[in-house]
Amino acid sequence: MGMLLSLLPQEFWILVLVGTAFAVIVGLVPRGAIAGVIGTILILSIAGPFISSLLNFLPWWVSAILMVWFVFAVINWIITLVFGRRTGGHLLALLLHDLILAPFRFVGFLMGRR
């Protein structure tokens, strides 16, 4: 839920809170979910300005590494949400394996190795 809230604008946080409260009333989610949503909203609203100023202070290459890491985290989150935790971990490991081997395969292709 924290990943989803971090991707949403702050104006939608109250709608998520109300929707989670409604889902608790109806019985779709357990009572602990509302505490998790409130905690995540509080942490994001308090830590948001500090994280923003820290990211503005970092050099461009550190920001690029953080963006790549964030893309992998979102891909892993989506795959885990759809297929489950173990499948998400295996898929992310295979993706990272292929990305590490890609430069070597490219050099092998350029050298004419068949």
Structure in words:
The protein is an all-alpha fold and 114 residues long. It has helices spanning 2-7, 13-26, 32-57, 60-83, 85-110. The longest helix has 26 residues, at 32-57. The protein is 84% helix and 0% strand. It has 2 domains: 1-57; 60-114, no CATH class. The radius of gyration is 20 Å and the shape is flat. The mean pLDDT is 83. It contains 5 helices and no strands.
What percent strand? under 5%
Distance between the termini: 47 Å
Runs in which pLDDT lies below 50 for 5 or more consecutive residues are none
What is the count of distinct domains?
Answer: 2
The largest pleated sheet is described as:
none
Binned, the helix content reads over 70%
Summed up:
The protein is mainly alpha-helical.
Features:
2 domains; 114 residues
How are the SSEs ordered, and which strands pair?
Blueprint: H1 2-7, H2 13-26, H3 32-57, H4 60-83, H5 85-110
Helix pairs in contact: 2-3, 4-5
